[in-house]
Amino acid sequence: MKIFDKASRPGFTRGVQATKISKKLGMLAAPLLLAATAAHAQSVSIPQVHSTVTGGSASTTLTGLPTGTNGDATIDLSLYGDFGYGTEMLTVLLDGVSVGVAAPTGLDCVSGLTQILIVDQATLAPLIADGQLEITFQPTSNVDNFCGSYNGSPSNVSFVVSGTITYDGVTGTAAEEQIASFMENRARALVQNQPDVARFVDGRAGGRLNADVTQGAGSIDFASAGRGPVWATLTGSATKFEEGNDQSYFLGAAGTHLSFGENTIVGAMLQLDLAEQDFANGDKAEGRGWLVGPYFATQISEHPLFLDGRLLYGKTDNEFTPDGDATDSFDGERWLATLNLQGRVEMEHFTMFPIISASHVRDTQDAYTDSDSVDIDSQDIEQTEVALGVDFEKPMLSHDLVLVGGLSGIWSDTDGDAASSSVIGNYNGWRGRIDAGLNYSNGAGLIAGMNVFVDGLGEDDLESYGLSLALDYQF
């Protein structure tokens, strides 16, 4: 075994290297994992790779990375292989750029060797701008394939390596992406929690209490009753997303309207909402806001066809807290437009209710400078949903009980600018929903109902199911 000579080590073109060697029982191969490690820091696991060819390289590509940083990166590697001589080493390349050399000299086929490389911010920033990073380990030609199998690798390997890369200063772009995700989820919750104004003209007006339980989501809904002219609603929901983020949402609304004839109303409403989202990496976003604007509902001619809509404008007051760092505040504004058309078709044994609904939300985040003097750019998201469906009801023999159900297809499209375009729109396209339940009426204005549903059919990343209970009473 030769004495290691620093002068014989190939120089690296970019980055600074530090070395530590230790003996451990073994190293674990980790899947790609994004997690917070310090204020504004993100750590990404490098999956285990190996080579069974003498002098042969190995590489892996990391995706979905934060695309900006104002600090250096640390690459922490665990190695196993033919590193018995000072000239046996690995050159580490990021997107083809050499950032250092791993040279755990003097130890052949020994597990638990570690090596640390430091990559300066100027080198790292352009490489991660696309959110991807190819990491290549290129050995010198004398790293031979005579080591045995290690940690699930084949036998006769020349080296096995895994580790992590940590950004010491993830900045504005990462914050913008988190905020964009928060805005997208808040927009969807805003539409889902809108008060029903068609009930003032279609004969279904009445107080209601509605509780939903879904896979990772729950909601509670109370509404005052009567045909007006003053009404109020309060709704709330809690949702758990597949990526590990949690959101809670509450919306209160109050309005008043004038009647024009027996089947048309025009009014104005005020809405106040609160949204909170906890991210899997420890970040947190919160927003409070208001919306105000006109609404209408009408029966079209003498036909059992009902149309309602609203156009609301409002402002938001928001906060974003990176894990372990100070809370920053920023403002925003929103527009919401909805239009719903539903009919009633009497069949021999049941009644059908064809429904078409459309909604559009535009949410804008104002630019701001965070507590670390990092500029966060402004951004917009726009979310459009169109739902086509048909509900039905069939009276049972007692006529006190009514079997109800429905089938709908929902088309969704979310667009954004700046950083938002890289993280939103995961649920774009079509998905299906099925409902089935039973309603009870006492004939004196009281209606109670139970409904089961499955949502997200045909969409791999969005699926929920649950049970809803409803209580209606016309005062």
Topology, element by element:
Layout: E1 16-18, E2 34-38, E3 41-51, E4 58-62, E5 73-83, E6 90-94, E7 97-102, E8 107-108, E9 113-119, H1 121-127, E10 133-139, E11 159-167, H2 172-192, E12 207-214, E13 217-223, E14 230-240, E15 246-259, E16 264-278, E17 284-299, E18 305-321, E19 328-343, E20 345-346, E21 351-365, E22 368-369, E23 375-376, E24 379-395, E25 401-416, E26 429-441, E27 446-457, E28 464-473
Antiparallel strand pairs: 1-9, 2-3, 3-11, 4-10, 5-8, 5-9, 5-11, 6-7, 6-10, 12-13, 12-28, 13-14, 14-15, 15-16, 16-17, 17-18, 18-19, 19-21, 20-21, 21-24, 22-23, 24-25, 25-26, 26-27, 27-28
Structural key phrases:
475 residues; mainly beta; Jelly Rolls; Lipocalin; 2 domains; 14-stranded antiparallel β-barrel; 7-stranded antiparallel β-sheet; 2 helices; 6% helix
In short:
The protein contains two helices and 28 strands. The chain is mainly β. A hairpin with a 5-residue loop joins strand 14 (230-240) and strand 15.
Structural description of this entry:
It is a single chain. With 475 residues, this protein is mainly β. It has two domains: 162 residues, Jelly Rolls (Sandwich), CATH 2.60.120; 302 residues, Autotransporter beta-domain (Lipocalin, Beta Barrel), CATH 2.40.128. The strands form four sheets. Strands 12-13-14-15-16-17-18-19-21-24-25-26-27-28 form a 14-stranded antiparallel barrel. Strands 1, 2, 3, 5, 8, 9 and 11 form a seven-stranded antiparallel beta sheet that branches. A four-stranded antiparallel beta sheet has the order 4-10-6-7, with no helix packed on it. The longest helix is centred in the middle third of the chain and has 21 residues.
